[in-house]
Amino acid sequence: MEQQPNNQKENQDPQKGRKRNFFIAVIVCLLILLILFGALHGLTGQASAEKITYDEFVGMVEDNRIEKIVVDSDKLKVTSVKKDKNGDPIRYEVNMVGDENALLELVGDRDIELSKKEADLTASIVSALMSIVVPLLLVVVGFSLIMRYMNKSGGLMGVGKSKARSYVQQETGITFQDVAGQDEAKESLQEVVDFLHNPENYTKIGAKLPKGALLVGPPGTGKTLLAKAVAGEAHVPFFSLSGSEFVEMFVGVGASRVRDLFEEAKKSAPCIIFIDEIDAIGKTRDTHYGGNDEREQTLNQLLAEMDGFDSSKGLLILAATNRPEILDPALLRPGRFDRRIIVDRPDLKGRVNILKVHAKKVLLDETVDFDAIALATSGAVGSDLANMINEAAILAVKHGRTAVSQKDLFEAVEIVLMGKEKKDRILSQEERKIVSYHEVGHALVSALQKDAEPVQKITIVPRTMGALGYVMQVPEEEKYLNTKKELDAMVVGLLAGRAAEELVFDNVTTGASNDIERATKIVRAMITQYGMSEKFGLMGLAEQEDQYLEGRIYLNCGDATATEIDHEVMKKLKEAYEEARRLLTENRKALDRIAGFLIQRETITGKEFMEIFHQVQNETSPASEEG
Ligand code: ADP
């Protein structure tokens, strides 16, 4: 994603110069023509004369006031016998009526010099030239403007030229050490690196080398980084293009780009071609909604090129996608992208390593504990973590510190996951109270259930990503499985915000929409996918596309069962809500006290929260009552 168009600069400069010269020439030509036109106009303009009507003209003829008449096509240039104050004869111009014979008749034998103007050869040549050259010039200028526009996307004649040339990096400078937490992917790619290093070792024994590998994983997990690392490790050039860049408006352009890309790459073999977002061209051709000619042609060309090249030359194609299920089966068959390398979200250890890789260039103080940060960032991908380190460094500078502390890192985690604090959003007292009770509702119910995750922080400072407040819960350890009890506790905890609102204010707000969505999703999955409902037992009622990519879930049952599932989901959510209300009612004193404290402080730590909670529990315990 950080491809540098390194060799573009020197290519562009002479071309730019030529274009500038061309434009200057066009402008000079136009100026000359304008001057010529002006001069011509001036020449004809010299004979400017007063316009008179034909009747006036006839009157003047009959009164013998005219000395000379010149017939100039359909006009008569008339010179009066009268002189102006400079002594020059006065001139008139009149439109001719009738033909020349009528004029001769009118003049008769009067003493008037009658003549006919011969066509002015130079003037007619210039005007003819003007009528041809000006439109021609306009066409040329317009055309060159279009060309200039098209050049930005590869040149008019080079529409189909691959842009990969601009994105070729002779040395990426990235190695596997820069990619953390993707050990399995690295292991699979190590083999590829070895092959690029010594293709003979493989060909000697008769082994066929892979032509392509598909990197599959959610965005930001480091697929591009891995591809670059393969090129870096093997010290081969890295050609990269995004799938969407192949497909243009014109049919056939994508195909010619593919051809061009392979041609360029073959010249530099051994090398790596990286196609990001391959799904943009590799979408299955078997759709019910009609095809897309351009995409299909591009895909066909890609398939043809993949079949056509000899992998022993050391040309390897890596492609990345997060939607492998929509790829055309032809792309995935052996001999093409037959290897699939999963680049999954990093686990706890992976996240710690990614944080470490990115923290190398950052000054850290002794408080920093990456394990704690990694625990709090379950589900975050590499790019999120890289972003967090950078945000933390910015925060440290903002606070006037010379090194990043753990506090900066935690603040950065919140910025990346929840957005920045929105200081200008001032909530009314009433709203602050509602948000406060809502959040404490979540936190308290979580604390009361033994299968819930511990509370790290509660805040009612609004964030730019929409949250008006939130509870940060950090697990004690990374979990790969969830028990039924944990899921139940999660649902009760999610609904506790709404329960607190209803309990305290006897009214509800729109603030619980995200909680409701998440709770419903969990309950639905428990019933349809995890076999965790008494009613349906172990029957699998839904299927998920690509488990590791959190693909779409679709129901796999009859309509009547789907209705029953809905009823069951409703019932479970109702029970969970009742449970949340019960817990909060029983602990109303703690709820009030913590919410009051939160309104004052805006943000409280998990420790402060637990202290107040235990304090209230001690006060209300039977022992203290007796005492
Ligand atoms: P993808 O191609 O999967 O969308 P990228 O490779 O473009 O993701 O990752 C974006 C950035 O995130 C990288 O430049 C890098 O800084 C960071 N990153 C992602 N995954 C990792 C990782 N496993 N190790 C180190 N950095 C990573």
Task: Draw up the topology in text.
Elements: H1 8-46, E1 50-51, H2 54-62, E2 66-72, E3 75-83, E4 89-95, H3 100-107, E5 113-116, H4 121-151, H5 183-197, H6 199-205, E6 212-216, H7 223-234, E7 238-242, H8 243-246, H9 253-268, E8 271-276, H10 279-282, H11 293-308, E9 315-321, H12 329-332, E10 339-342, H13 348-359, H14 370-376, H15 382-398, H16 406-418, H17 429-448, E11 455-459, E12 470-473, H18 484-505, H19 513-528, E13 542-544, E14 553-555, H20 559-586, H21 588-601, E15 603-605, H22 606-620, H23 622-626
The site of adenosine-5'-diphosphate has 18 residues, from helix 7, helix 13 and helix 15.
How does this structure look, described?
The protein is an alpha/beta fold and 627 residues long. The protein contains 23 helices and 15 strands. The strands form four sheets. It has a five-stranded mixed beta sheet with strand order 1-4-3-2-5, covered by helices on one side. A five-stranded parallel beta sheet has the order 7-8-9-6-10, with helices on both faces. β3 and β4 (89-95) form a beta hairpin. α9 runs parallel beside α11. The longest helix is centred in the first third of the chain and has 39 residues, at 8-46. The relative contact order is 0.06. The structure holds adenosine-5'-diphosphate. Adenosine-5'-diphosphate binds at residues 1, 179-182, 219-225, 320, 354, 357, 382-383, 386.
Nearest-angstrom radius of gyration?
A: 41 Å
What class do helices, strands and sheet pairing give?
A: alpha/beta
Largest sheet: 5 strands, mixed
> Which of globular, elongated, flat, extended, rod-shaped describes the shape?
elongated
Give the N-to-C terminal Cα separation: 68 Å
Strand order of the largest sheet: 1-4-3-2-5
Provide the helix percentage.
40-55%
- Report the uncertain regions: 1-15, 153-160
> What compounds sit in this structure?
adenosine-5'-diphosphate
Number of strands: 15
| DSSP summary: helix tally | 23
Let me know the average pLDDT: 81
Give the amount of beta strand, in percent.
5-15%
